[in-house]
Automatic annotation (TrEMBL), chain A:
Any single Pfam family the record assigns to this protein: BPD_transp_2
Membrane topology designation: Multi-pass membrane protein
Top-level taxon of origin: Bacteria
Transmembrane segments: 6-24, 36-55, 61-82, 89-110, 130-156, 184-205, 211-231, 238-256, 262-282
Keywords: Cell membrane, Membrane, Transmembrane, Transmembrane helix
PANTHER family, sorted: ABC TRANSPORTER PERMEASE PROTEIN, SUGAR ABC TRANSPORTER INTEGRAL MEMBRANE PROTEIN-RELATED
Subcellular location: Cell membrane
Keyword set includes Protein biosynthesis: no
UniProt protein name: ABC transporter permease
Keyword DNA repair assigned: no
Automatic annotation (TrEMBL), chain B:
Entry-linked InterPro entries: ABC-Purine-Binding, Peripla_BP_I, PnrA-like, TAT_signal
Pfam family, one: Bmp
The keyword Chloroplast belongs to this UniProt entry's keyword annotation: no
Membrane spanning stretches: none
Signal peptide: 1-29
ABC transporter substrate-binding protein PnrA-like domain span: 35-312
Official protein name in the record: BMP family ABC transporter substrate-binding protein
Length: 303, 364
């Protein structure tokens, strides 16, 4: 297998944890709330899903439990940020640290155990293509997360719910004035974001790398957060950003096996460098920021 | 902000109180000897931290209630580790085992400040009268596994997933390559440096990338989780690792384990500490010291190769052979070790070049 086909075959799976978490965070941020606790919520989702699979509960139950756990932890953040209107940055960081602590506590006796991942499902016909064939052999979660991407894109573009979420994020006072329950809607968004982060963690610990080790999320929650900004709060761009991150992370490995004349350290840090550049561009371009940014992001709202 | 300042204050005053109590108690004799082991990662069933902790079991067995062992796991390198090590010593521990390279400066400060404390430090280079760095000669074991790998490989391509390009890991890869060449001179070794000590997902992807390139034996170099081993079992290629056996993760494809047993060193150091004649020195320990041993050999290794391996192992143990014996050519075709010469410990611990046969360029 050539390096290129290896990257093509693996990048969707590599991108899935980023993608799921970033899509959830997109909904949260679109509603005007900044949840920085993704890393911890993913870790909690990862450990509970792993435990369910390890004890024979199966993957569907594991993903459900991870979504619930993520939901529950994000509602703790929701209570702090929305209920008592604490500073969202501080509340998010605190919940993130709580999640990481909880995950190492719960996972303590499961350290370094392994489970079996999910079988891959191939698209008939396309899977046999040369070079790109591997792209069409993926596990079910990857296919479902592609569907989720399309669903969230459609939700923001065509549905009333999408409009309401955006209204709540752009101008909560106005949204409230026309009768929407801003806080309740934001709670809903936060819960959804938490559930998605839980699923992202579950994918990481039971499918992508089917083992539990404390700290295995290894910064993927932070990359997901960066992806939302990288994608300027647009679903399509976040999707391509996640793919790019997945591809680059594999490229840094393939570069070495293929002997490309690129330093591996540079490739390892490439996703972060690209994020910084994009952040620089969009924050220096006021027009871009105004068009796509969320006006009330991170601001506490209360009657 | 207020809360944080308050908490720091409380911690500091608690520490001061503990220190004062210890000072007052110091005069009384016949307390059990406190041994504190500080570990960089969670204490799992396998891996580096597990091996260090297991090395203290014979000490506990030998001294019973005369020693009191404290395990401090998952301590990040940096200021936090310094604080925790200081607290461990303030709590009365007299033997401090600092289980990670990054604890070096903090541990050395403790050793200098309090000569009554004996410090053992993993994989460092600093030495003091009461401070011994210790490291394992993994290369002796990886050489033997290289011989086995070359015998079992069908493609003649071997791979290694390695953490960082530092001398300790480079040495292991080089010896692995030399051992493989002793069986099959045409063998090629590819290395993926993942540039992280801990990212199971990335390690697993690296293993898959090597397998996709045709490597059919993978050396998991300094990975604390079974990520690489499990991926190799799934892909049907042989794999081996360092420190503690991961055979249960690869029942059919486990080539062997370069196991480390620190108990002879820990026991000797505690003995010396109690006798009052501990002298800090660089402890670079291998097969001859019974610290390094290859265990769980795969039953698939052909009998004639296994006989050669056993013979080589005996020669390494009695000192009549070392893997880094010339002539060795560097990857850039210059001379590494002249014919007839062999590298000393000081050269080995500073090795920053690949031997010929490692096809991946070394990151600069």
């Amino acid at each position: 297998m050539s390096g290129m086909s290896f990257i093509l075959a693996g990048m969707l799976a590599a991108a899935t944890p980023f993608l799921l978490a970033a899509l959830g965070e997109l909904v949260v941020e679109r509603a005007g709330v900044l949840n920085l606790g993704l890393e911890g919520i993913m870790a909690l989702g990862a450990v509970v899903a792993f435990i369910v699979v390890y004890h024979g509960g199966g993957h569907p139950a594991a993903f459900a439990v991870a979504a619930l756990a993520g939901c529950a932890l994000s509602l703790v953040f929701g209570f702090l940020a929305l209920g008592v209107r604490a500073n969202q940055v501080a509340a998010g960081l605190a919940v993130g640290i709580l999640g990481q602590g909880l995950s190492s506590l719960i996972g303590n006796s499961y350290e370094s155990l392994t489970v079996t991942g999910l079988a891959k499902w191939a698209v008939p016909g396309l899977a046999d293509l040369p070079v790109v064939g591997g792209l069409f052999v993926q596990d079910i979660v990857v296919w479902l997360s592609l569907l989720a991407t399309a669903a969230i894109w459609g939700m923001f573009r065509f549905s009333k719910l999408g409009l309401i979420l955006r209204a709540v994020g752009e101008n909560p006072q106005a949204a409230r004035a026309i009768g929407y329950r801003v806080i309740a809607i934001r709670y809903g968004a936060v819960a959804f974001g938490g559930a998605m982060a839980g699923l992202a963690g579950a994918y990481a610990s039971t499918v992508y790398t089917p083992l539990w080790a404390d700290g295995m999320i290894a910064g993927r929650g932070w990359i997901a957060l960066a992806l939302v900004v990288f994608g300027t709060w647009l679903t399509g761009r976040i999707f391509f950003g996640a793919l790019l991150f997945g591809a680059v992370s594999l490229a840094s490995l393939v570069a070495q096996t293929e002997g490309w004349a690129v330093p591996s350290q540079l490739l390892s840090s490439l996703p972060y460098i690209v994020t910084i550049i994009v952040l620089g561009i969009i924050t220096s371009n006021k027009r871009l920021l105004k068009v796509n940014g969320v006006a009330s992001l991170g601001e506490p709202f209360g009657p | 902000m207020n809360m944080i300042a308050r908490r720091t204050f409380l911690q500091t005053s608690a520490l001061a109180a503990v220190a004062a109590a210890i000072g007052a108690r110091g005069a009384s004799a016949q307390e059990p000897l406190g041994i504190a082991l500080v570990l960089p990662s969670p204490l799992g069933d396998v891996g580096w931290s597990h091996t260090l902790a297991a090395g203290l079991d014979p000490v506990k067995a030998a001294y019973g209630d005369a020693v009191k062992i404290t395990l401090l796991e998952n301590i990040a390198e940096g200021p936090d580790a310094d604080r925790i090590m200081n607290k461990a010593v303030a709590d009365g521990n007299k033997v401090l085992i600092a289980g990670s390279f990054g604890y070096q400066n903090g541990a050395m400060q403790i050793a200098k400040r309090d000569p009554s404390v004996t410090v053992l430090h993993a994989s460092g280079f600093m030495v003091a009268p009461n401070f011994s760095p210790f490291a394992a000669k993994y290369f002796q074991g990886t050489y033997l596994l290289g011989m086995a790998a070359a015998a079992l490989s069908k493609t003649g391509k071997l791979g290694s997933v390695s953490a960082f390009a530092i001398p300790e890991l480079i040495t292991s890869v080089n010896a692995f390559t030399l051992g493989a060449q002793a069986v099959n001179p045409d063998v090629e070794v590819s290395v993926v440096w993942v540039n992280t000590w801990f990212d199971p997902a990335k390690e697993q992807e690296a293993a898959k990338a090597l397998i996709a390139q045709g490597c059919d034996v993978i050396f998991s170099n300094a990975q604390d989780t079974p990520s690489v081993i499990a991926a190799c079992e799934e892909a049907g290629v042989y794999a081996f690792n360092l420190n503690s056996s991961m055979k249960s993760y690869a029942p059919t494809r486990y080539l062997g384990c370069v196991a480390t047993d620190w108990s002879p060193f820990f026991k000797a150091s505690v003995d010396a500490h109690l006798a009052g004649n501990f002298v800090g020195a660089n402890a670079f320990l291998g097969v001859a010291d019974q610290v390094v041993e290859v265990v769980d050999w795969s039953p698939d290794i052909p009998a004639d190769i296994m006989a050669r391996i056993t013979e080589t192992e005996a020669k390494i143990a009695d000192g009549s052979f070392t893997p880094f014996t010339g002539p060795i050519t560097k990857a850039d075709d210059s001379e590494g070790v002249a014919a007839g010469a062999s590298m000393g410990d000081a050269e080995i611990v500073a090795m920053d070049w690949h031997v010929k046969g490692v096809v991946t360029p070394l990151p600069q």
